[in-house]
Specification:
By secondary structure, the protein is an alpha/beta fold. It is built from eleven helices and 14 strands. The protein has a domain of about 210 residues: Rossmann fold. The longest helix is centred in the first third of the chain and has 22 residues. It is globular, with a radius of gyration of 19 Å. The protein starts with a strand and ends in a 6-residue tail after the last helix. It binds nicotinamide-adenine-dinucleotide and uridine-5'-diphosphate-4-deoxy-4-fluoro-alpha-D-galactose.
Length: about 325
C-alpha cells in the first residue's frame, strides 16, 4: 500500500514509518514540524535504506493536502498529526480544538475529494476517563477531564459518524496507552522540547544530568507501592500494532482497538528499571499528587490479539534500555 502518514516525523509516527517501510509499504510523510525535526525523516531513511518522501505541511491546509493526494495515489492515511500536551491544552483550548479537531476534519474532507476513505486515527487511553476500573475494554463508557482528551473523544465521534454515513469509509480508532522506549539503532526516539511533562522524558533528563531529580507525583494511591500505575508500551511494539491494524481497513465501518501491553508498572518500578538501564541511581523525591491523575491505567489488549493477531513483545527493561541508548547518544535530541 501507499500510506500518507500525517505527523510522521514525530515520536510514534517516525517509528511507525520504519516498520511500514520494512514491511514493504510505500509512505509519504506530511508534517508541519511543529514538534519534530526534518532530521527525523533522514534518520528513518538511514535505518531502512529507503527514500522517504516528505512534505512539510499543515493538516489545516486543505489546498496543500489536495496537492498531496493529486501527486500521489494514496491507499490509506495513518493520522498522527496533533498536539498532545495535556497542561498546554488546558491553557490554550482553542489551539487544541482547532489543530486536532478542525485539522482532522480538513484531512477527511481532502481524503473524500480524493476518493481515499481509509483512515487509522491515533486516539488515546485518556478517553477512558477517571471512572472506569482497569483493565480498560474498548466498549467501556468514555469521558475526559481536559481539552486534549476532549479532542480525542470528539474526533472518535466525528469519524464514527462519517463511517456510518458513507459505507465507503473504513476507520480504525487506536487507543494508545503509554508509549516509551526508542528504536534499537539509537537513531530515533522521543525528543520533547522544554521541561517534559511525561514521566519517561523527565527520567531521561535526570539520567543525563540535565535535571536534578525525578518528582514522583504522590505515593499514597491505592496501588501496591502507592505510586501511579500505567501501561507502558515499547514504541516499536506500538508501531507493529499500527502495521497489524492495516488489516482492519479491509472492511468498512469503524473498528476500535486498545494498543497496550495489558501490564501495569508503577512510577517507582519505572525509575528502578531506568536506573538498571543507565547503570547509576536516578535521584527521586516524593512530590504532591498531580491533579487529574488516575491511580491505575492499563489495557485489556485481547481484542487486538484476537482480531489483529498482535501482542506487545518487549518488557520494561528493554523499553528503558532502548530509551537510554537513544538519550545517551542524542543528549540534545535529534539534530
Ligand atoms: P509528536 O508530537 O511526537 O508527533 C505529532 C506530530 O504531528 C509532530 O511531528 C508534529 O510536528 C505534527 N503536527 C502537529 N500538528 C500538526 C498539524 N496541524 N499539521 C501537520 N503536522 C502536525 O507526538 P506522538 O507522541 O508521536 O503522538 C502522535 C499521536 O498519537 C498524537 O495524535 C497523540 O495525541 C497520540 N497519542 C500519543 C500518546 C503519547 O503518549 N505519545 C499517547 C496516546 C495518543
Ligand atoms: N509522573 C510522575 N512524575 C513526573 C511525570 C509523571 O510521578 O514527572 C507520574 C504520573 O503521576 C503518572 C505516571 O507518572 O502516574 C505517568 O505519567 P505520564 O505523564 O507519563 O503519563 P499519563 O498516563 O499521565 O498520560 C499520558 C499522556 C496522556 C495519555 C496517556 C495515555 O500524557 O495524554 O498517557 O496514553 F492520554
Amino acid at each position: 500500500m501507499r500510506l500518507l502518514v500525517t505527523g510522521g516525523a514525530g515520536y510514534i509516527g517516525s517509528h511507525t514509518c520504519v516498520e511500514l517501510q520494512k514491511a514493504g509499504h510505500d509512505i509519504v510523510i506530511y508534517d508541519n514540524l511543529y514538534n519534530a525535526k526534518s532530521a527525523a525523516v533522514e534518520r528513518i531513511s538511514k535505518i531502512t535504506g529507503k527514500e522517504v518522501p516528505f512534505i512539510k505541511g499543515d493538516i489545516l491546509d486543505e489546498k496543500a493536502l489536495d496537492e498531496v493526494f493529486c501527486r500521489y495515489h494514496i491507499d490509506a492515511v495513518i493520522h498522527f498529526a496533533g498536539l498532545k500536551a495535556v497542561g498546554e491544552s488546558v491553557e490554550k483550548p482553542l489551539l487544541y480544538y482547532e489543530n486536532n479537531v478542525s485539522g482532522t476534519i480538513s484531512l477527511c474532507k481532502a481524503m473524500a475529494r480524493a476518493g481515499c476513505k481509509k483512515l487509522i486515527f491515533s486516539s488515546s487511553a485518556t478517553v477512558y476517563g477517571m471512572h472506569n476500573e482497569p483493565p480498560f475494554t474498548e466498549d467501556m463508557p468514555l469521558s475526559t477531564i481536559n481539552p486534549y482528551g476532549a479532542t480525542k473523544l470528539m474526533i472518535e465521534g466525528i469519524l464514527t459518524d462519517l463511517a456510518a454515513a458513507d459505507k465507503d469509509w473504513s476507520v480504525v480508532l487506536l487507543r494508545y496507552f503509554n508509549p516509551i522506549g526508542a528504536h534499537e539503532s539509537g537513531l530515533l526516539g522521543e525528543d520533547p522540547q522544554g521541561i517534559p511533562n511525561n514521566l519517561l522524558p523527565y527520567v531521561k533528563r535526570v539520567a543525563v544530568g540535565k535535571l536534578p531529580c525525578v518528582n514522583i507525583f504522590g505515593d499514597d494511591y491505592p496501588t501496591p507501592d502507592g505510586t501511579g500505575v500505567r501501561d507502558y508500551i515499547h514504541v516499536v511494539d506500538l508501531a507493529k500494532g499500527l502495521l497489524a491494524a492495516l488489516k482492519a481497513l479491509e472492511t468498512d465501518g469503524t473498528k476500535i482497538y486498545n494498543l497496550g501491553t495489558g501490564n501495569g508498572y508503577s512510577v517507582k518500578e519505572v525509575v528502578a528499571a531506568f536506573s538498571r538501564a543507565c547503570g547509576h541511581e536516578i535521584p527521586w523525591r516524593i512530590a504532591p499528587r498531580r491533579g487529574g491523575d488516575a491511580p491505575f491505567s492499563f489495557a485489556d489488549a485481547s481484542r487486538a490479539k484476537k482480531e489483529l493477531g498482535w501482542t506487545a513483545q518487549y518488557d520494561l527493561d528493554r523499553m528503558c534500555a532502548d530509551a537510554w541508548r537513544f538519550i545517551s547518544r542524542n543528549p540534545d535530541g535529534i539534530q
